[in-house]
User: What shape does this take?
Amino acid sequence: MVLGGLLLISCGKPQSIPAEWPEKPIKLILPTNAGGETDGLARLLQRAIADKQLLPEKIVVVNLPGAGGTIGTRRLKESEPDGYTIGIWHSGIVTSKAMGIVDFDHNDFELICMSGYTELLLGVAEGSKFQTIEALVEFARNNPRSVNVSTNVGLPVHLVPLLLAEKAGIEFRFIQTGGGAPRLASLLGGHSDMTMLSTMAFVNFKDSGLKPLVTFSAKRNPLFPNVPTAKEIGIDIELVEIRAWLAPKETPESILEKIRNAVKTAMQDPELAEEMNSLGVIPVYGGKEEAQPRLDKLLNAVMPLVDKVRSVDQ
Amino acid sequence: MELLQAFQYLLSPTPLMWLTVGVASGIFVGAIPGLGGGMLMALTVPLTFSMDSTHAVLLLMGMHVGSVTGGLISATLFKMPGTPSAMMTTFDGYPMAQSGKPGLALSLGIGASFLGGLVSAGFLIILAPPLAKLALKFGPWEYFAMVLMALVLISSISQGTMLKGLLSAMLGITAALPGLNASDGQLRLTFGFDSMTDGFNLLPVLLGIFVMSQLIKDTVELNKTASIISLKNTQLFPKLSTWKKQSLNLMRSSIVGTWIGILPGIGASISSMVSYGMAKAFSKTPEKFGTGHKEGVVASEAANNANAGGALIPLITLGIPGAPVDAILLGAMIMHRIQPGPLLFQTNGDLVWALMGGYLVANILMFLVMLFSTRLVARIININRAYMIPIIFVFCLIGAFALSNRIFDVWLVIVFGIVGFVLDKAKFPLGPFVIGYVLTGFLEENLRSGLQASDGSYFPLLTRPLSLIFVLVAVFFLVFPFYTEWRRNRKKD
Amino acid sequence: MKLSYQHIQDYVIGASTIVLAGLILWAVREIPPPFFDPLGSAAVPKTVAFILILLAARLTARRYFENKAEAEKAVHQEPYNLEPWLTTAVVVFSILYTLALGTGLLGFRWGTVVYVFLTGVVLAKKDRKVMGFSLGLALVIGIGGDYLFTNFFFIDLP
Assistant: This one.
């Protein structure tokens, strides 16, 4: 279900660049349901920006879930570039393009900044026959298509393990399972061998019987010092899931800069950092120059992948 | 002992107040077609940020319990399910109310809801951890076989010819096809419209087929609905003997509801469908279903309320939401820094017991609120349609719009309303339409996930013991009617 | 031979169903062959379309060949007058209301006031008291609803 924003009477005609932006509340589009990780993050930032009065008007969150987030991203793309409609999304912006669901990616937006990121890990159930990533890769190499990976087809949780298989020269068998909760259930019930989840899931569900095998971050996670990075086992992947702030193309740079400053200042608050941590988001601010190459890299990696997969199985 | 302490806590003024507020607002919103518990909870979550975390969760849980039951009011009185899970209640509750017994129909539904809630609360408190483990054994094939079995059990659900029922079901299935397909991330049947990429969502379709079409029908038959149904001298509460006769049905429906609640990713509407189908299959008078039969109301309402308790089992023990609404509850808990899971029993046992006890108390509160308002609520049946029709449409518009903040979903309500009205006018039953619509996506996705896992082989359907059982039951009930007819014919000769 | 109302209904539904099935079959051609699973996204819609055609053909055929006299007898008249024009008005009002909100012509507040009042007036069947009450109700729902949903629950109403 959905939470929304505040009454906005948009008159529809493009406005000239206002000297005093913002003069009315700013809509923050979230292409996902209320209650999830991205939603929680957005609401924390919204509250922090309002509490500290970093912007003269308030930000209202508008949830636009559906079709893998593309309902929301498309609406954002088609909004007026007046700074009153912005959005937050993750690398789904890239994978939806790769899957051919939409014909636009992050380059069709103004990239504002990134408000933290989540680390991605592949994991198994505690009692799994694979206790290390090396063992799993070795097994998959000798037995192609025998390691079942539960996934949500077309999203990062599908394409990132696919990238790993590609680089390691192995083949997984992907099983469409859905969001984080069904994937966890599938793993614990033994219906699949492995899945990708965020750090937070591995921390929270450690006790339910979830065990990480490999992380895609640059460094080992201090919470899981025994879990190697992909690079350490000779697979050249290094990526994290960023939370990118986007605006429609041609939104004036002066407005983008104001939003950047607000987000950046809000994220310096240690209390907010603590709250973001508890959502599993690592509270590191990054400007456009940091967000852009990460998304570019992912796009370049997954674009050829999808075509290849689609042609292989025919 | 801990449970007693939990009750002591729950019955102290503040928690009790939040539970009552939750239950009452849940019933109210649940009774309004268009607005549902999920929406209310999602809208309330941000308001609870400043509250005590246990109070917040109790408030939301009360809303959940209240809204599931509230849905039966409009389903019974107007044939408009207030919440999706009450749709099966329209089939028997409405005819019963129209025959001059709205009070009886309501109190039967309320009693069944209450007992369903109690049974699932019992499972929740006593057997939560092992049941949650058992539920994890269900994989795609088991889901597929179970829902397939349900489909067989409910087939021929309402009156009308077999042919029209089948065509109606196939049209419902068609409505579930467009949009982004989960199994391979492929867009299909969008005809190039961007707004179709998300397909047709459950809420607008249901509001259209059941609510909008009924609004149109009520307008056409304005002169009929103007006749007042007398509430004097009608029986308001079912006799004890009725409950005794329904005890087996009640127990079975509550267990089915609880079990489907425990299974992750399958919601309350499917649980009432399965339990209705089972009740019909095991009934001595299956032909009476759909005509205002008590068994039908009991099966649907016991199951959808039990479902709510069942869904709390994997949520509390594993941190896996059992139904979409529970995902909102989970989100709220995480916001309040409560991480459900096995660890919660050790680190915060009091809270676990408070949640479980809270569910039980919420059901009792729901029962009391509903019981004392039955006589009053039953009067709504006679409300002037000139007020009711526009207002319900306004609520449908808000509910459909709020789903994804787009007007497209409101158009869907209108289009499906007209389709539903035309079909109904031509004597096509609408039940199969909605059942076909609801179950198709689920069946297709699980079948394809199963095939992904088995590399295209259908054998797991028969080699996995649980799915084999479901298939056998389905085959039995498919063949059984033919067999009895064949025997009857032979006896005649 | 005069066709009964029932016949026309079933013929129209049968024909529309076949058109719908045709549309599905046409749209399914664009779906690429299966790649992530053996079934693919085209299999189910295709099957459904064929079954639709089969059922619709049967429905139409059965109507065509059935005993006309008996079919006529089965029709029973409702004991009250139906209101087709009133219904058309209510549906048209609902469409205009949605359109007004969708295009931003009217906001939720005034759109709702106008809609609830006008629909109430039409349905009141010349009862002045009901009309008056409708106006009050329209103001409460429109203005109150707007206040409740935008200021308290934060739905982004049009």
